[in-house]
Amino acid sequence: MPVHPSARIAATARIARGAEIAEDVEIGEFAIVEDDVVIGPRTKLEPHVVVKRWTTLGAGNQISVGTVLGTDPLDKNFSGERSYLNIGNGNRIREHYTISRGTEPESATVIGDDNYIMTSGHIAHNCRLGSNIVVCSCALIAGYVEIEDQAFVSGGVVVHQFSKIGRLAMIGGNTRVNKDAAPYFLYSEFNITPCGLNMVGLRRAGFSAADIAALKKAFRLLFRENLPLEEALKRIEQETPTGHTRHLVEFIRSSTRGIARR
To answer: Residue 153 in contact with residue 168, Cβ under 8 Å?
Structure first.
């Protein structure tokens, strides 16, 4: 059955015949759900939410007033063919937000689980966000950006297309991210600049004193000793060999844009 009998749908909402609405979904006044949309169990769409074609939401998502999911990409190369927006479970997306589907045919924008995405911003086509990420109000995430788990993107941040933000990185308010932000560190200033460790995030994530000490040494080798990048990475591997520093080194070596290092 396309609409589960336990779903609560306001009389003014419009649900296309080709949409699938799971159990205990709540859809508010004047919301619109187009064909080929899947809404998972216990998800709530507040009034005036629009979920466009080829969008899938998992279980327990909360989507606030005026948000539009699955918009056509803001990309001149978009040809109008089928592409997707796939959203996981337990996400909160607040008021007046837009998230686009992929540009290339059959490509997707992917959002993981338990993210908190605040008001009045945009996540563009073909982005890939992990889980337990915070994106604050008025942040703009351009196309093909990747954000790893537990990152924190502050208000007014602008992220250039194809950039990557690593796990537990924190980007300070109004920063321009035009290079990759390596994991675990705090970044600030208009032109993204590493400032230290994301101590609050690391402690909340349960990092031990030894884990933090290893990352402090890695930070110093990368940003304070004026070493060539490859030499800094080799010394991190030799002198601070932990799971977290290995992830840091792998992230940096896989970077195609280059990391923020000024």
So the answer is: no
Is the separation of the CB atoms in 38 and 57 below 8 Å? yes
Name the residue with tokens 């884990």. 211
What is the rounded end-to-end Cα distance, in angstroms, of the chain? 57
Could you read off the pLDDT of 112-148 as tens digits, one per residue?
A: 999 999 999 999 999 999 999 999 999 999 999 999 9
Q: Can you tell me the distance from the alpha carbon of 102 to that of 89, in angstroms, rounded to the nearest whole number? A: 20
Could you tell me if 43 and 20 are in contact, meaning their C-beta atoms sit under 8 angstroms apart?
Answer: no
> Dihedral sign, CA of 33, 37, 42, 43?
negative
Distance CA 187, CA 172 (A): 6
pLDDT band at 80 (very low <50, low <70, confident <90, very high): very high
Q: Within 13 Å, how many C-alpha atoms sit on residue 3's CB side?
A: 15
Considering only CA atoms, give the Rg of the chain: 20
Give strand pairing partners of 109. Answer: 85
Distances (CA, A) of 12 to 28, 29, 88, 218: 8, 5, 27, 56
Instruction: Tell me the C-alpha distance between 142 and 139, whole Å.
Output: 10
**φ and ψ of 236, to 5 deg:** -60, -45
User: Which helix (DSSP H) or strand (DSSP E) does residue 71 occupy?
Assistant: strand 68-71
Please tell me the class of the 8-202 domain. Answer: mainly beta
- pTM equals 0.97
* Cα–Cα distance measured from residue 194 to residue 78, given in angstroms and rounded to the nearest whole number: 35
| Widest pairwise Cα distance in the chain | 65
The SS3 of residue 181 is strand
Q: What are phi and psi of 39, to 5 degrees?
A: -110, 115
